[in-house]
Amino acid sequence: MLDAGRHPNIHLLAYSQVEELKGEVGNFTVRVRMKARYVDENKCTGCGTCAEKCPTPVLDAYNRNLAHRRAIYKYFAQGIPSVYTIDTEHCRQFQGKKCGVCAKVCQAEAVDFEQQDRILDLNVGAVIAATGYDLFDASRIPEYGYGKFPNVMAAIEFERLLSAGGPTAGHVVRPSDLQAEEACRSLDKQILKLSRSLDSLEKKYGMSSKDFLDRPADVKPDPQDDLVRWSELYKEHQDLVIARDALKEKVEHSHADKLAFVQCVGSRDFRFNAYCSGWCCMHSIKEAIIAKEHNPETQSYIFGMDIRAVGKGFEEYKIRGGKDSEITYIRGRVAEITETEDHQPVIWYEDTRERKVKHLPVDLVILATACEPSKGTRELAEILGVELDAYGFIKSDPSHPVDTSVPGIFTCGCAQSPIDIPESVAQASSAAARAAEAVLSRKAAA
Amino acid sequence: MSRDILIIGGGIAGIQAALDLADMGLMVHLVEKLPSIGGKMAQLDKTFPTNDCAI
Amino acid sequence: MSNSEAKPRIGVFVCCCGSNIAGYVDVPAVAKYARTLPNVVLVQENLYTCSEGGINEIKNAIVEQQLNRVVVASCTPRTHEPLFRNSCKEAGLNPYLFEMVNIRDQCSWVHMKEREKGTEKAKDLIRMGVAKAAMLTPLDSVELGVTHSALVIGGGIAGMSAAESLAGMGYPVILVEKQRRLGGLLNQLHKIYPGARDPRALLEEHVDRVTKDARITVITDAEVQSVDGYIGNFNVGVSSDGRTRLYEVGALVVATGATVRQPPDGVYEYDGRRVITQIQLERRLSEGIDPAPRNVVMVQCVGARVRERPYCSRICCQIAIKNALEIRRLFPDTHVSILYRDLQMYGVANEEMLRKAKEAGVRFMYYDVDRPPEVENEHVKISHQLLGKELDLPADLVILSTPLVANEDAPRLSGLLRVPLDANNFFLEGHVKLKPLDFASEGIYLCGSARYPANLAESIAQGLGAASRAATLLSKEHLYTSGITASVNPESCVGCLGCVQTCPFQAISFDPEQGVCKVNPVLCKGCGTCAATCPSQSIQLMGFTPKQLYAQIDQVLADD
User: Fold this and answer.
1) Rounded Cα–Cα distance for residues C178 and C185 (Å)
2) Cβ–Cβ of B52/C433 closer than 8 Å?
3) Residues whose CB is less than 8 angstroms from the CB of residue A323 and which lie 6 or more positions away in sequence, other chains included
4) Is the pLDDT of residue C164 over 60?
5) CB–CB of C173/C150 below 8 Å?
6) Which residues lie closer than 8 Å to C513 by C-beta, 6 or more apart?
7) Which residues contact A224 (CB under 8 A, 6 or more apart)?
8) Which residues in chain A have Cβ-Cβ distances shorter than 8 Å to B23?
């Protein structure tokens, strides 16, 4: 990333989109809209003071909604370019309320509420579409409980949990426990508020709440309302403390040791995507191995049909994972996921090797959701005039694996089909070769 | 006529293609719709099979 | 840099590397300790020192704190040392006044369960690094020219694709092929899928292109005999027609493919007649099978994913299913069964082919690795897991899907090129994830099944990819070598020739006039073997001199 940001030959246009393309190989004209960040890229140093002071929390898409960011934000900490952006959908200022705190605290005077989108017209000889993928929405499979049961998560969400830079600094915590912790925090706030009210009453009467409620008959509250109010406050306070302590106790004894990985969620599935999503088997194995590193008590179960470890070093990784990280590979597709009290998910499946229908209660379920063409691929394909295949990936032919239906436009990575990182990196070089050929041979001819 | 190249998408594939072409001395315009490049790989913790960090 | 003669002012940057280091080592404690070390004027902790933020901090610190030495305690130099060196250079500091301390691979990763000891070790490592840093001296690089042409070893589909692409970009290419014909394994295929296409057409297209392209020189029936030189300046000796010719090129591409493993006789009753391999089936299908077989049984993973050969050969399931579809197409009355452990039909096109095969009536049966099928005279016995019983499948033709294995002469070529092989003798790329088509040695690139089994589309893509990688080198006018090379002190050298004999890169020569040895800094790879050999320490490796190393050793042995 850093190399791309620093290279003198790379003109980085982040927060931008292609709107129009005309012409032909060797001579395309492209219209690019550079969206307004409302921050001057040339002045912003990426210091982050604006975000620190911004009053508006927003669900953080980078952390898959497991955490919050601010309305002025960086997509992620190490992002290139290292510049902040205002999310106008949530920013108070842009939603008609008064704010402008970021502009006030920015020492570089980089915030510019008047900034406009800019249009850039480019003349290029070749184009590479590397628009990647988005993930299947697992709530389309209601029997898996995604979106209903807190402890059923998508693999990318689990990835954020495992990350040191993620919402739990890499600790594997079940979402139901995260919710419970959130609830504890909210209860703490309420308890604090009540304590303050109780404190003022205690000061007024010069005795503790407990003593007051056990007071001798001749001590009269003044006014009479105080008595009722004090009792009510005290009772409420007690109840909240008990509830909070119970939650805390539960969270402390909760653990995320038993993990179930469900493969082929939304892929190899006639209802959704018939194709195989290529890298999810390896991804789940990796997550199981990493989870074990973070928590030695981890035991993982991977439910799949075929476990496709086909790349260099992958089969060995899978076997090592099985041995060292206590991964059990179960050959059977998951039929249904239910939940017991305490949000404990239960997996219902057929173990085809034992020819039995079984169920397995676990602590956390991770759904290996399928890789789909990224949103916007369809619109982009129209703009570029390239054909898509039946699944919405950019179409190419095996004998010309990175060429699209338009000469001079190439594709690589998951935009082309679901492939893993080494293959994406290799294919990216392939597309670069084709693009270079397209512009250099023309120049040589011209 | 132009020798410049437009790359749409700043994930690992787009970045690698951009670097190759830039290293060949060609001018690359790398367009990314999100506020920063890095794509899905930036959301990963470690990558298989070497367990190197994704960043 | 004049400031290198001044008293050392060392900046230490301790990286958390996300949780890779910070999860197992007490980084704040380590940073605190680093502040107490001699000559250290600045210590910083970073979440990711290699990020833009981290790099900027280093550069700013060099300028603002007048640092004349930088120590980064993080991952392995193999990942980011060049980045850090460049950053120092950009800030005006000689890039060799930089020392990297590996507290990840050599510390946090191996002491995950021993936080205290790991932390103490990290402190020791940094103490050593700081001591060495104080003794570093600025070093220079050498400027090299580049020959703007390439040599591709291997004329199969990957090699041809690489050659075509490089020629298309304007570079002359020598394409060396061992066999009489170009095309490699493609020559032996009956059909390619999807679409039951004729591989000959594809082959002709490519052979036509490479032979007609004025920039490509095709040499068949040829072998690489010698490789001298270095990145941008290779001299390759190629023998053909009884003669050896030398070619000067700037980059090399390894596209030598792989070999289909033939099982030893008897394994699964292999006899080359009734029990054959997939590649033999391809030939039979091309020649025409008459009479048609009645029952074909294919067995997957024969000699693959087993202890002697643990890898999955990636393409055998695709090949089996392709051939099964062919058989069903040619002989609609023939039954085909495929016995498998996992159906490795990854991705979009393969999964579709699997579906088509099922629709075409091919039967798939899962077998457990511990209960493999048994081939008998007229049957194949399978312990059918899903039905829970033993089945006798009638089989008048049995096809064994065997893996691709590394070519027999891979070790020879690896020795000539001085590039490594992995545990399965496939060529080992620079980084399995981020540099799949490069070698760690510069100027040499890799594609196709020489790296790992690859299907048609993958081989073509990788061939193109290797061309792109080579072009990033060939497009340059000049290259700069590393400054870490050996150097001889002529005063103390007695010309014993110990270093000359031990140098693996033939980088040292003897000057008879002066009676001393001399290092060619361009050939020198900085391995240090010479320095370890010299009895008088006359030849030393810059950046790893005895004084610097002893300073580190002293620190290890010192009490805290």
Assistant:
1) 13
2) yes
3) none
4) yes
5) yes
6) none
7) none
8) 7, 9
C74 in reach of chain B (CB within 8 A): no
Give per-residue pLDDT as tens, A314-326: 999 999 888 999 9
| Model pLDDT, residue A218 | 65
DSSP A169: T
How many other CB atoms are there within 10 angstroms of residue C30's CB atom? 26
Q: Across the interface, do B8 and A131 touch by the CB < 8 Å criterion?
A: yes
Signed CA dihedral, C83, C84, C87, C89: sign only: negative
- Are C495 and C510 spatial neighbours (Cβ–Cβ below 8 Å)? yes
Is the confidence metric ipTM above 0.85 for this complex?
A: yes
**Chain C residue numbers touching B25 (CB-CB < 8 A):** 475-476
Q: How confident is the model at residue C204 (pLDDT cuts 50, 70, 90)?
A: very high
Contact residues on chain A for C347, CB-CB shorter than 8 A: 275-276, 278, 417-419
Amino acid at A197: S
- Pairing label, strands A72-73, A85-86: antiparallel
Query: Among A13, A63, A416, A7, which residue's Cα sits nearest to residue B34?
Result: A13
Of B21, B25, B49, the CB nearest to C432: B49
Question: In the prediction, which pLDDT does C558 show?
Answer: 80
Sequence-distant (6+) residues with CB within 8 A of C208 are none
Chain B residues whose beta carbon lies within 8 Å of the beta carbon of residue C51: 55
Query: By CA distance, what is B27's nearest residue in A?
Result: A9
Q: CB–CB of B13 and A162 under 8 A?
A: no
| pLDDT value at A74 more than 80 | yes
C44 half-sphere exposure, CB direction, 13 A CA radius:
22
Handedness of CA A431, A433, A436, A441 (dihedral sign): negative
CB contact under 8 A, A162 and B42: no
* Nearest-Cα residue of chain A relative to residue C52: A2
Please name the amino acid found at residue C53: G
- Helices C278-287 and C316-330: crossing angle in degrees, nearest 10, is 30
For C104, which DSSP code?
I
Cα(C12)–Cα(C33) distance, rounded to whole angstroms? Answer: 11
Q: Which of C401, C399, C411, C403 is nearest to C452 (CA)?
A: C403
The verdict on a CB contact (< 8 Å) between A316 and C310 is yes
| Cβ pair C471:B20 closer than 8 A | yes
- Mean pLDDT, residues C178-206 taken together: 94
CB C185 within 8 A of CB C256: no
Neighbours of chain A (3+ CB pairs under 8 A): B, C
Amino acid at A228: V
Instruction: Residue count of chain C, please give it.
Output: 560
CB contact under 8 A, C305 and A2: no
- Average pLDDT of the residues in C163-186: 97
CB contact under 8 A, C475 and B52: no
Q: Given an 8 Å threshold on Cβ–Cβ distance, is C51 in contact with B25? A: no
Q: Note the pLDDT tens digit of each residue in A147-181.
A: 999 999 999 999 999 988 888 888 899 999 988 99
| Across B38-45, average pLDDT | 88
Contact C168 A419 (CB under 8 A): no
Q: Which residues of A touch B6 (CB under 8 A)?
A: 18, 28, 30, 122, 124, 126-128
Cβ under 8 Å to A: C residues 405-434: 422, 426, 432-434
Interface test mutation site (partner B, options A439, A440, A441, A442, max chain B beta carbons within 10 A):
A439
C20 shares contact with chain B (CB less than 8 Å): yes
d(CA C5, CA C8): 8
* Span C515-546, pLDDT tens digits: 999 998 888 889 999 999 999 999 999 999 99
Q: Which residues contact C331 (CB under 8 A, 6 or more apart)?
A: C289, C292, C293
Lowest average pLDDT, out of A388-397, A436-445, C54-63, goes to A436-445
Going by pLDDT thresholds of 50, 70 and 90, the confidence category of residue A217 is low
